[in-house]
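protien #1 (seq + structre)
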Amino acid sequence: MQKILVANRGEIAMRVMRTAKEMGIKTVAVFSEADRNMPFVRYADEAVCIGPALSAQSYLRGEKIIEVAKQTGADAIHPGYGFLSENAGFSKAVTDAGLIFIGPSAYSIEMMGSKIAAKQAAKKFNVPMVPGTEDPLKDVAEAKEIAGRIGYPILIKASAGGGGKGMRVVNNEAELEEQMRMAKSEALSAFGDDAVFIEKYVGAPRHIEIQLMGDQHGNYVYLFERECSIQRRHQKLIEEAPSSCLTPDIRKAMGESAVAVARSCNYYGAGTVEFLVDENLNYYFLEMNTRLQVEHCVTEMISGIDLVREQINVARGNKLSFSQEDLKINGHSLELRVCAEDPMNNFLPDTGKLDMYQPPKGPGVRVDDGYEQGQDIPIFYDPMIAKLVVHGNTRDEAINKLCRAIDEYYIQGISTTLNFGKWAVQTEPFRSGNFDTKFIEKHFKPEYLNTDSESAEEVAALLGSYIWSKEKQQKSAINSTGIASQTSNWKLKRR
C-alpha cells in the first residue's frame, strides 16, 4: 500500500493523513468547492475537487471518489467516519474496483448496519439485550401488543442509520400510533428505509462503548471502554476513558461481549460496540459502529495504540501487532467536542468566521482540528471544529487539565461548546461519576454559563480601557515634548 485516498474532510482527514505520512504512505485528498482552502487539502500529497458544497454532490459521490482513486494511482481508500464510512455498497464498490477498503467487509457493514440484524446476530452469542422486538414492526396493532407485553415507556427506533433520527420515546398507548408514524417518516427521509422496531426504554442509562480491533486471521482484542453519556440530541459531547463506574469484572464481561458481536459478523478492522448500562451496572447491547469513532482519541491516549495505523495494517492483511494480554489502562483521558454550537440557545449550530483561533498546548493536551484562523465555518457539514483531548495520571488530574486547556483555547467569531465543557466537568455529578445520558436535561441551564461570559467581557473591557489609556498617554507625551517615548521599537513590534 503506497498511496491512500482519504474520502473525508476536516479533522479526521488530517488525522488519517498524519499517520499515513509516518508510515511512508502518500495521500490523496478529495474536497468540495466549499473546502478548497481547508488545511487537509494543503496537507495531502495530491488533492482533487469532486463537486459542490452539498455532501450529496461531493463527499457522498462514491463512484466519483473511486474514479479519482484510480486516476491518482491510489491503492486504498480510507473513509474516516460519517459520509460513506458505513455504506456497504461503497465498501463493495471499492473492492470490486480492485482497491483496498480500509475498514470491514461489505458483509459486516450490512449486517451491523441493520439494528435488527445486528441484534439477531449478537443474541446467538448470548450478548445481553434490552427487551424488545427482533423483527421490523408490521403495523400499529402489533406494536401495541408488544408494548403492552414489555411495558411502557418504550423506544421506537429506526432499523437503519443512527444519530437519533427515527427515534421516539412513547410513554403510553395513546401516543403510540402518532409517534410510530413520525419515526417511520423520519427514518424513510433520512435513510430510505422506514423499518422500525421496539425496545424497552431504559430511562436513565449510561452510554458506554467498547473499542475493538480484529484482523483477517481471526484475532480479536478489546481496547477497554469509553464513557459517552454527556449528550445532546442523542449525540455525544464529552467522552472519557476509562468509565468512572465500571468494575474490572464488568469491563472484562463487556469486552468479551463486544468481541462476540464482532465474531458474529466475521468483523475485521476497528469497530465499536455500544451498550446501555443501567443503575445496577447491567449492560445491554445497543448497536455496532463499523468504523473509526470520533472519540477514538481517548482510547489511543490510555492504550498507547495508534488505531489508524492498526486499521491500515489490518487492511494490508497483517495480523494485529498486539494481543489482549499486552493491553493495560494507562491513566485517564477526556475529550470535549469543540462544536460551532450555542449552548445558550439549545446547542443550535452557529456559523461565521473564526476571527481568532488559537488552540491550547502543553503536556498531556492533544487537539485534533480541521480549521485555521480566518476560515469560515460552513453550514453544509457537521459543526464540529475540533476535538480537545487530555490525558492525566488520574481522572481528577485529567479533569483539571481539561479545564486549563479550555481556558487557553481562544476562539472568537462564533459560539462554541468550550464554556459548556468547562462547566460540565466541574459539576458535582460529573466529578463524582454519578451521571447518565440525561445529564444536560437534569443539570444544565443556559444561565449557568452567564458568569463566565460576563467575566470575559469585563476583562476585555478593562484591557481595552487600559490600552486606550496608555496610547493616550504616549500621544500626550509626544505632543508636549515632540519626542517619542523611550520604549524600544523592537519591543513594540514584537507584540
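ok now protien #2
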Amino acid sequence: MQQVQKPEVQIGKAVPTILFLMVFSLVIDNSFKIISPKLVEYFHVSASTVSWQVTLAGLVIGMGAVVYASLSDSISIKKLLVIGISLISVGSLFGFIFHNNLQLVVLARIIQAAGLGATETLYLIFVSRYVPAEKQKKYYGFSTASFQLATVIGTLTAGFITTYLAWETLFLVPLLSLILIPFLIKFLPKETGESKFVDVIGIILVAAVAVTAMVYLTNFSWLVLGLFIVAVILFLTYISKRKKAFITIDFFKNKLFVFTLLAALLIYSVQASFVLNTFSFLMTEVYKLGLDKVSLMFIPACLAAAAVGSLSGAIAKKLNSVKAVSLSMGVIIASALVASLFMGAPLFLFVGLLILASCAYAMMYAPLMYAGLEKTPEEKRGTAIGFYNLTINIAMSIGFTYSSKFIDSLHLGIFGKTLANHYSEVLFVIAIIAALALLVFLFLVRPNMAKNGRV
C-alpha cells in the first residue's frame, strides 16, 4: 500500500485552535448539565422529564464521536470541525428561538450535541496524526486538563447566566464558536483520504440499546424492558455477522474488556448521578442556594481534579491499576455515604466531599481504561478506546436518568419524611450503586488482570 505523505502542519497554531474549540464545546455541554433545577422550575415538570435534555445530548455526543472518528479517514478534520461548529450553532439558535417548548429544547440540544461530538475526538485524532510521537503524551494531557477547566467555566457560566439573566441566554453562548472557523481554515492542513465504511446500522443499534435502557430506568415498564432485550440481541447478532461492524464480536469475547465496560458503566453513572445531578438539586432545594453559588462550589473540586490528573503519571508509579481504582471507588462510596448521613451539615463539608469525589474520578480514568485494554491487540486499541468512551457517555446519560427518577419518586422512609431526608435516601442508594461497581471491578475485572500478572 502506498504511504500517503502527511502535509506540513503548524502545530503551534493548529493545536491551540482545536484545543480552544474543544474547551469551548465542553463548556457548552457542562453548562446545560447543571441547569436542570432551573428548567424544572421554568417548565413546571419533573426532574426525570428535564433530564432528557442531558441524557439524549450525552448519548448523541458519544455516538457522534464514533461517527466523526470513522469519517476522519475520508473527510478532512478541518471540514468535520466546520460541520461540527455549524451543527452547534444551528442547534443553539433553534433552542433560543423555541425555548418556551421543552420538546423543542430537547431537540435543539440533540442538534447541538451532534456538533459537540466532533471536537474532543478530532482533537485526539489530530494529535495522533500530526504531533511527533515523543510529544503526544503532553498533548493528550492537555485534553484531560481542558476537561477540568471546561467544567469550571461551564458551571460558572450556567450558574451566573441562569441567576442574573434569562436561562435561555445560555443558548446564545455557543454562537461564539463561529469566530473560530477562519482560524480552522487557515491553520489546519488540507487532507485527502480513501473512503471508509461508516457502520450506521451498528451505531443505531447501540443507540437503541442505550435509549431503551434509559427509558426503562425512568418508568420500569415491562414493555420497554422487552424492547431493551430485543435491541441487545439484535446488536450482538449484527456484530457477529457483519465483518465491517464498527466493533466486532471479538471484543466481547475478551472477558477483561467486557467486565471493564460493565464496571465503567456503573462507575460513571454514579459520577453523573452524584456529582453532576443530585448535588445541584440538593444545594438548590435543601440549602436554598442559587445556581451561581452552586457553580462556585465546583471550582476547588475541578482545580483539585486537574492537579490529580496532571500527576497521574507519578501516581501510576506508586499505585497499580487495581489499587488506584479500588482506592478511588472507596473514596466515592465514602463521599456519598457521608453526604447521605450528614445531610444539613455546614456547606464546607459538601465542598470537601465534592473535591474528594472529583479527584477520585480524575485518578481512576486512565488506570481503568488501560486495565480494559490489556488483552486488546494493538491494532484494535483505537476502536476499543472509542467504544470505551462511548460507554462512558452512555453511563453518564443513564446516571442522569436514574438519579432524576430517584429525586422525583424515591420514598423508602429510611431516614424520615422531610426534604432533607429524601435526599439522604437518594444519596444512600447512589452509594449502594457505587459499592456494586466496586464489587464488579474486584470480582470480575481484577481476576482477569491477575491472570496476566497485573494485580
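DSSP finds 18 helices and no strands in the chain.
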